[in-house]
Amino acid sequence: MLLQGLALSFASSVAWCVLFNVPVRTIVAGGFAGVVGFLVYSILPIYGAEVLLSTFVSAAAVSLLSQLLSIILRVPSTNFSVAGIIPLVPGSLAYKAMLAFVNNDYVGGITLATKTLMVAGAIASGLIFGISVLTIWKGARYAGNRAQRD
Question: Which ranges form a coiled coil (predicted)?
Fold first, then answer.
């Protein structure tokens, strides 16, 4: 089951890259970012992590990986970060929420919609966290050089 999920996450990330005209030399790296995100998301619940925590950590891992790949391949990190979070998007959860509203199950719809928004917030927070960690690391690395010049 895990291998099927990894293959589908690679395929969906690559399809996103092709659909949005990502440079050809970066398509496999975009698929790799999706695989890493899904792998982290799948492994953390084995160790007792909740869905929100595993989503946050996997989005942060995708963000850090996308920053690294953007430096190596010299393209914007958005190419990899968006492709990497595609497998994490809670599409089925949003569908179930809308279906509950259509079927007049408003309490269930609000519950599912709230879960969807929380997962989406965890994805956004994880992406921001990954970018912030790299920015702080770069700033700390060059802080000593700036202080000596002043």
Answer: none
pTM of the model: 0.88
Each residue of 57-72: pLDDT tens digit? 999 999 999 999 999 9
Rounded to a whole number, what is the largest CA-CA distance in the chain?
67
**How far is it, in rounded angstroms, from Cα 138 to Cα 141?**
5
**Confidence band of 135 (pLDDT split at 50, 70, 90):** confident
Question: How many other β-carbons are positioned within 10 Å of the β-carbon of residue 143?
Answer: 10
- CA atoms within a 13 Å half-sphere pointing along the CA-CB vector of 129: 15
Distance CA 35, CA 136 (A): 26
- Give the single-character DSSP code of 105: -
Q: Contact at 8 Å (CB) between 134 and 77?
A: no
Cα–Cα dist 139/55, whole Å:
27
Q: Which of 104, 106, 107, 109 is nearest to 93 (CA)?
A: 109
Cα torsion angle, 87, 89, 91, 96, sign: positive
Residues 17, 86 contacting (CB under 8 angstroms):
no
Helix (H, G, I), strand (E, B) or coil at 89: coil
The pLDDT of residue 139: 78
